[in-house]
């Protein structure tokens, strides 16, 4: 009986301490908030660029492969410069012909447009784009560091 009571108390204590740890509010980090450009809500403006199907269709697989290699290389370059915080293709076709998206680390639509125009596939007309201001977590750029830790290959 005594062993059962000790076991129940141990389980209760473990459960209670686990519950406390998961409900504790993280300590506010002013230095990090300032570095990331966060407002009082931990948010900041970004610009989303939606890549759409462009007017140019390229049937030559070698040329298209070179454009896509340049497209991916440009994304990597912009990410390394801290300009892109999210980029990726859509996995399904959609009625808007959205092919992929970028989230740029700027609040300036003009600056985002300058950056998207460095993409060889955009310059070739394979992709067109639409630009939208967006408001999201200022911590968003931090995920890239962790992505590099979990990716076995880089396309």
UniProtKB/TrEMBL annotation:
Residues 1-19 form the signal peptide. InterPro entries: Dimeric_a/b-barrel, YCII. Coiled coil: none annotated. Residues 58-134 form the YCII-related domain. The keyword Signal applies. Keywords: Signal. It comes from the Bacteria. Belongs to the YciI family. This is Uncharacterized protein YciI. It comes from Chryseobacterium geocarposphaerae.
């Amino acid at each position: 009986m005594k062993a059962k009571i000790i076991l129940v108390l141990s389980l209760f204590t473990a459960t209670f301490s686990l519950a406390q740890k998961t409900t504790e509010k993280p300590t506010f980090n002013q230095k990090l908030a300032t570095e990331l450009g966060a407002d009082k809500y931990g948010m900041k403006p970004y610009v989303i660029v939606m890549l759409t199907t462009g007017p140019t269709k390229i049937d030559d697989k070698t040329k298209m492969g070179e454009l896509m290699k340049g497209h991916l290389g440009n994304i990597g370059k912009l990410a390394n410069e801290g300009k892109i915080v999210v980029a990726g293709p859509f996995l399904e076709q959609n009625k808007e012909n959205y092919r992929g998206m970028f989230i740029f680390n700027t609040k300036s639509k003009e600056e985002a447009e300058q950056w998207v125009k460095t993409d060889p596939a955009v310059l070739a007309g394979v992709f067109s784009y639409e630009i939208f201001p967006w408001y999201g977590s200022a911590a968003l750029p931090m995920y890239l560091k962790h992505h590099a830790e979990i990716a076995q290959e880089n396309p």
